[in-house]
Amino acid sequence: VALALTFDDGPNDRYTPAILELLDRAGARATFFFSGAELEKFPDLARRAAERHEVGTHLHAHDRAKVRTRLAFEEELRRSFEVHERILGKRPTALRFPFGDPGIIRRADLRLLGLTAYHWTFSSEDASAFEPTEIVRHVVPRLHAGAIVLFHDGRGPGSSRGPGSRRPTVQALPEVLDAVAARGLRAVTLRELFT
Q1: 101 belongs to the catalytic site
Q2: Are 12 and 153 spatial neighbours (Cβ–Cβ below 8 Å)?
Q3: 152 a catalytic residue
Q4: Which of 58, 152, 153, 178 is catalytic?
Q5: Which residue from 139, 73, 130 is spatially nearest to 103, judged by alpha carbons?
Q6: Nearest C-alpha neighbor of 161 from the set 131, 121, 118, 126
Q7: How confident is the model over 72-112, as pLDDT tens digits?
Q8: What is the pTM of this model?
Q9: To 10 degrees, what angle do helices 167-182 and 132-139 make?
Q10: Catalytic one of 8, 9, 126, 153
């Protein structure tokens, strides 16, 4: 019985290593949706994540406008594929749209490109949390078999303490992982969850 923990917007040299360490300590696996632009900045970190976890694409830039036309989407995807192939040695098969917004892109279009788009069952709300307790209170009661939980490891806009900081995510994760185990669940990759 399993669920999937997913992390968007990275890799980030400050938060991703801490998240990877916590996942490894708990024997948990996850799916990371890396943007091509961030992956280029931290290739060694991306390779480290890919050793044990699933890595999907969050497109090249975190830009909602890139799904408004087919041409913009194809160019954005091409850039992302190129970076993933160069750094990780393969094209991703999992995609998460920025902000979860597919724009005009249809599932049939993605299948032709060998991609599966994944949304989430619920968000950890870590993008707006100032304290780890906010994340824990939001996530733990909602944990259930088959859930896809959205977290962030990449830095968003905001201060080093407030929204945009992923420190609360890192601090909340041990309690979330303990709650996963206490419910008899396993944290697995999306590929594992759906096979």
Answers
A1: no
A2: yes
A3: yes
A4: 152
A5: 73
A6: 131
A7: 999 999 999 999 999 999 999 999 999 898 988 998 889 98
A8: 0.94
A9: 30
A10: 8
